[in-house]
């Protein structure tokens, strides 16, 4: 493939056209149980992450398919957040972090020497566990991303579209210039999602997006995910198994492993399959113990 | 609701006993605790009063002595060694204001730039960065006369060789107060939560875009406070200025690059104060009042600017 998928186009329209033109190589297509073909967005092969030599996750092999929700579940401290942060190169911000293995994004090595992490993050967005709106108005929060990308389209239109996409427009349309900190927790998280989709990413990564929210807000965001996956591919980390069962198409179960001295712990994939299979008929007994609540 | 009537005598006694013990527990604070609380509060109040007393005494004495010399002459007239009725502070006032303006022009970009570099870009594990960090703390504590010697050796003469001009005095003062701005700027930048930076970077912003559009706007109040402290200190410094050319008894308005000499308010006050005649002492006290007014005006403008651009968290 000659085109570098991390070339950043200037406007939303160009971005959409750019993605459509990324050729889908036949060997990456896979027939799922419903018979439709799904392009692979991410392919992880033997990914290990080390912080200053200490492993956090070891030999993760899995993939993420287009327009699907892929969930990472597992007990606390098993490295789910570490893994998801690899996907948009946020681990680069940690000086002692090292990633080994191969991570392909649309067939291109994401950690290749010519790849600019800034460009990567423009295509792969992230929503964090604790809502982190900027200390600006709601409008400026959403507009920040498009502005730094140099998007010349009408900013009001971009902001409205993003807020509608995050199911927040009706609640804030009369107070767009109020401080974002005046919103409730659930609204702030939806604002962060709107901020993420305002730059038209390809993938949305969500690191435990609902763990700081009440059940009603959680429900709203889960409904939102079902809408969002029509347009984006979503990877979600969650420690809530029921949530994974509700929203995801495929699930990876990661378990903690201890080394011989019991000092170091890292995560390893135990099972990665269709969600329905993981929760009703898992292949591994450890998976069954976890999802039925016997352990973890 | 009518009062609870217990069914038996034994229950009545038990209920009365329970209520009495609760009333005793919830009653007044033990006297020892009250005394200790009041004593502690009193000691704290005393500390505040002692600190204020010094300041109040200074202001009271200045006003008492200098009030008679207050008038428009102070601002419009040049100084004089003989004519006390018409002497004023005009060149010194203009010199001070000009110098503070140049000091602000120098310390804001340099101080903020250094603070941003040290907080955002420097690799904390490198030994030279740790050395720089340590030395900025030291520089804030160096006596001001040393900066005067530095100014004399490097700015007035030496490599820069500017001569005894007002700019040289401004540069010397800027070097003196720069560490204050850097330290305050670093604290302000450090106070911005990392989650804001992460959120910005996750949207595809570069380090510089994140710093320029998220971190710095949020850090403006802290930086502004540092600048206010810095210019307050710079306005009152005499020792370094004595070595870089503010000793000439000037009677005409100073210019930034003019080598006819310049003066500053603290230097002029010092000159008046060293004269034997009592009228000059009055003038010196009036000069102190004038300097305080200038300081108050500068700080008010700076605080107003800071409040205007402050972002609410």
Layout of helices and strands:
The complex is a heterodimer of chains A (296) and B (313).
Chain A: H1 12-21, E1 30-31, E2 37-38, E3 40-51, E4 54-65, E5 69-73, H2 80-87, E6 97-105, E7 108-109, H3 117-123, E8 124-127, H4 138-149, H5 155-165, H6 169-172, H7 185-197, E9 203-207, H8 215-228, E10 233-237, H9 241-247, E11 250-258, E12 265-274, H10 275-280, H11 285-291
Parallel strand pairs in A: 5-10, 5-11, 8-9, 9-10
Antiparallel strand pairs in A: 1-2, 3-4, 3-6, 6-7, 11-12
Helix pairs in contact in A: 4-5, 4-7, 5-7, 7-8
Chain B: H1 9-25, H2 31-66, H3 73-76, H4 90-121, H5 127-139, H6 144-156, H7 166-190, H8 194-202, H9 207-236, H10 239-243, H11 265-273, H12 278-309
Helix pairs in contact in B: 2-12, 4-7, 4-9, 4-11, 6-7, 7-9, 8-9, 9-12, 11-12
Which terms summarize this structure?
heterodimer, A: 296 residues, alpha/beta, Rossmann fold, six-stranded mixed β-sheet, four-stranded antiparallel β-sheet, 11 helices, globular, B: 313 residues, mainly alpha, MetI-like fold, 2 domains, 12 helices, 72% helix, flat
Large-scale geometry of chain A? globular
Order of helices and strands of chain B: HHHHHHHHHHHH
Distance between the termini of chain B: 49 Å
Which pair has the most extensive contact?
A-B, 29 and 20 residues
Strand numbers in spatial order across the main sheet of chain A: 8-9-10-5-11-12
| Number of beta-strand segments of chain A | 12
Return the CATH topology of the largest domain in chain B. MetI-like fold
Structural class of chain B: mainly alpha
CATH class of chain A: Alpha Beta
Largest sheet of chain A: 6 strands, mixed
């Amino acid at each position: 493939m000659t085109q570098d998928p991390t070339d950043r186009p200037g406007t939303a329209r160009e971005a959409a056209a750019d993605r459509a033109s990324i050729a889908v190589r036949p060997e990456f297509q896979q027939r799922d149980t419903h018979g439709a073909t799904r392009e692979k967005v991410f392919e992880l092969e033997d990914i290990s992450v080390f912080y200053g030599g200490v492993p956090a996750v070891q030999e993760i092999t899995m993939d993420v398919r287009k327009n699907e929700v892929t969930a990472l579940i597992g007990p606390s401290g098993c490295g789910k957040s570490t893994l998801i942060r690899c996907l948009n190169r946020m681990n680069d911000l940690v000086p002692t972090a090292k990633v080994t293995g191969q991570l392909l994004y649309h067939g291109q090595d994401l950690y290749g020497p010519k790849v600019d992490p800034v460009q990567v993050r423009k295509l792969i967005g992230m929503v964090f566990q604790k809502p982190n709106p900027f200390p600006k108005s709601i409008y400026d929060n959403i507009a920040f991303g498009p502005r730094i990308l140099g998007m010349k389209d009408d900013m009001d239109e971009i902001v409205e579209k993003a807020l509608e996409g995050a199911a927040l427009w009706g609640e804030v349309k009369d107070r767009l210039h109020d401080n974002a900190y005046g919103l409730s927790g659930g609204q702030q998280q939806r604002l962060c999602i709107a901020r993420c989709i305002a730059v038209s990413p390809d993938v949305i990564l969500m690191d435990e997006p609902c763990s700081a929210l009440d059940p009603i807000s959680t429900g709203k965001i889960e409904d939102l995910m079902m809408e969002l996956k029509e347009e984006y591919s979503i990877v979600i980390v969650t420690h809530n198994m029921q949530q994974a069962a509700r929203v995801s198409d495929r699930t990876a179960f990661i378990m903690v492993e201890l080394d011989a001295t019991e000092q170091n712990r890292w995560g390893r994939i135990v099972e990665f399959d269709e969600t329905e299979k993981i929760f009703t008929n898992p292949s591994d007994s450890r998976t069954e113990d976890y999802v039925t609540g016997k352990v973890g | 609701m009518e009062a609870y009537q217990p069914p038996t005598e034994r229950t009545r006694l038990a209920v009365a006993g329970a209520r009495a013990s609760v009333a005793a527990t919830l009653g007044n604070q033990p006297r020892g605790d009250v005394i200790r609380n009041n004593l502690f509060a009193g000691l704290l109040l005393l500390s505040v009063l002692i600190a204020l007393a010094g300041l109040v005494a200074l202001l009271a004495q200045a006003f008492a002595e200098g009030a008679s010399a207050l008038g428009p002459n102070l601002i419009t007239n040049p100084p004089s060694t003989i004519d006390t009725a018409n002497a004023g502070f005009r060149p010194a006032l203009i010199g001070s204001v000009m110098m503070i303006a140049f000091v602000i022009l120098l310390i804001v970009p340099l101080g903020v730039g250094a603070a941003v570099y040290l907080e955002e870009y420097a690799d904390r594990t490198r030994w030279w960065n740790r050395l720089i960090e340590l030395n900025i703390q030291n520089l804030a504590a160096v006596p001001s006369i040393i900066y005067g010697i530095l100014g004399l050796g490097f700015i007035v003469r030496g490599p820069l060789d500017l001569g005894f001009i007002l700019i040289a005095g401004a540069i010397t003062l800027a070097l003196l107060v720069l560490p204050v701005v850097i330290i305050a700027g670093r604290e302000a930048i450090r106070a911005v939560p990392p989650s804001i930076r992460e959120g910005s970077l996750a949207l595809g912003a570069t380090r510089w875009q994140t710093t320029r559009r998220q971190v710095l706007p949020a850090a403006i109040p802290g930086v502004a406070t540092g600048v206010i402290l810095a210019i307050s200190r710079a306005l009152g410094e005499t020792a370094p200025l004595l070595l870089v050319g503010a000793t000439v008894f000037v009677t005409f308005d100073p210019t930034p690059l003019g080598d006819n000499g310049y003066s500053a308010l603290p230097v002029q006050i010092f000159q008046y104060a060293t004269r034997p005649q009592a009228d000059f002492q009055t003038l010196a006290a009036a000069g102190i009042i004038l300097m305080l007014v200038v300081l108050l005006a500068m700080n008010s403008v700076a605080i107003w600017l800071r409040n205007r651009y402050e972002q609410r968290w």
